[in-house]
Amino acid sequence: MAQKLIITAAVTGAVHVPSMTPYLPITPEQIVDDAVAAGEAGAAVVHIHARNPETGRPTSDLKLMADIVSGIKKRSEIVICITTGGQLGMTLEERIAPVSVFKPELASCNAGSVNFVLSPAAEKIKQPIYDWEIPFLAGTYDLVFANTFKGLEYYVTTMNQHGTLPEFEVYDVGMINNIAYFIKQGIVKKPVYIQFVMGILGGIPATIDNLNFLVKTAKEQIGEFEWSCAAAGRRQMPLTTAAVAMGGNVRVGLEDNIFIKPGVLAKSSREQVALIRSVADALGRDIASPAEARSILRLKGNENVGF
User: What is the CATH number of the domain that holds 62?
Assistant: First the structure.
């Protein structure tokens, strides 16, 4: 029998813009509410970004992040995974700062550089709500999401110092080799937790064959590890369903997909959590509670965080 399923909810992210959907959480209060609701629906982990509450633009503002993570912790036992991706274009120091300040149990750690292209979405927005949205999306046509080996070492070393488990975001197969290298160097410690992020323009296509290939390659290169799958847009539910069937974990939420089914906007990340939970129930996978997720991933516990 596969171990219990860890569902992660990525509630806002730094990809979608407010003009795409009225349901995207923007303010700290909205993000907290959506995170808590996702936990009530069955998510054991919530992945957190911050946004400017006035404009909806992704931000590295630590005061806003403090309001979000402390607000979630007061209302829920859910595991909080803080981003170090932040928003496209942030400096290395801006991206790692939340780990040093908040010392979370879990933090994202992008496992290599990638073309992270969102520009086709700009063409679909006819009347933007905010003037930053179209330039932000269009500008990714000439942007590399940089995660050098020097940067990766800095991220992982900082996380090690604060007892934070890296959640390695793998956008393409070569990034598995990067993780394996740092394991050999003694910088990455086990347990290793990988999130396969599929379907980004610039990364690996979101197909079941490719998911199988990623898992197989990671087993060959790394050995024992825990893994989860996230997929962009309309491929979210097909790929996460495959991951459930394969014994992996899953990530859903409005960061990755603003729809609940074709042509129907999701009103919250909670809806997507409930949907993938129903899939898991049908396939006989039990859902991990936050406490069980902490045990599976060997996390330090929310009594040991810095918020």
Answer: 3.20.20.70
